[in-house]
Amino acid sequence: MAKKFNDALYNKILLFGHPAFKPANLEKIPKEKIFSSLLDTFVHINLNEEEAIQHWKNILKGAEKLEKKLKRPVSLHLAIVDYFTNEKKYLKSPYLVEIQVFQKAEKLAMIDPLTGTFNRRYLDLVLQKEINRSERYGKQFSLAIFDIDDFKKINDRYGHVIGDEVLQSFSAYIKATIREEDILCRFGGEEFLIILPETEMNGAMQLCNRIRISFKEEKLTKNISVCFSAGIASFPECGKDSVSLIRQADKALYEAKYSGKDKCVFADKTYNI
Questions:
Q1: 120-160: per-residue pLDDT in tens?
Q2: Are 61 and 122 in contact (CB under 8 A)?
Q3: Catalytic residue among 190, 217, 218, 255
Q4: Dihedral angle of Cα 208, 210, 214, 216, to the nearest 10 degrees
Q5: What is the side-by-side strand order in the sheet with 228-235?
Q6: Are strands 228-235 and 264-266 parallel, antiparallel or unpaired?
Q7: pLDDT (tens digit per residue) in 93-120
Q8: Is 246:271 a contact under the CB 8 Å cutoff?
Q9: Residue 141, Cβ density class (10 Å: 0-12 exposed, 13-18 middle, ≥19 buried)
Q10: Active site residue 98
């Protein structure tokens, strides 16, 4: 009887590491060889799957110890090198194989082709990682969902090509305004979601209103001016998991839309599960 795939360990590896940690052809690797293939990819050690699983468990334990000692987050790559050079001494001169190639391929799969922002696939990974990090270190963070007001009217009047140009200009403006550590994703259609690490609700509101007010002054293609509405939720006040946080931000966005548009609204802080 085949052994059950260790989903918990697999997800922990992906969440602890960078979302681009996976090789681009991971989906082609049989499940019964995933853990050994991941190790072979980065340190060229050929192990059977049971050995690889045990090594991965030890690597993750070692990573947690390193974080406590260093009092800061460490990358999974560092944890792998530390484990195989200091704990098991398999490697005398560690060599991580062409990680840039894998990162580039995986990044392309996580980018929205129209706007160049991250897509929903990346959002799901990075939001859970931010929740894990904030829980571990007792930090706050906020997220905001932006939705362009009356976007359908733009498409109906000017056509979808112009509508696409508006989306590109809108996302580019936001990316130029937010911090390097903030993460902008296309949430769907004319909706965008920003993750704001170590930012409480008031700080998120100030940022969203600053973008909202200043972007109205921008003259886009065909001299179009655009307004948007936003819903803002913070961790842990508005929810302690990704579903709750997004749901609360979406409810706040709904309130902004149906109370006049062109405004930013806080989520309900009492909704905390």
A1: 888 988 899 899 989 988 999 999 999 999 999 999 999 99
A2: no
A3: 190
A4: 40
A5: 183-188, 191-197, 141-148, 228-235, 264-266
A6: parallel
A7: 544 444 554 455 556 678 898 999 999 8
A8: no
A9: buried
A10: no
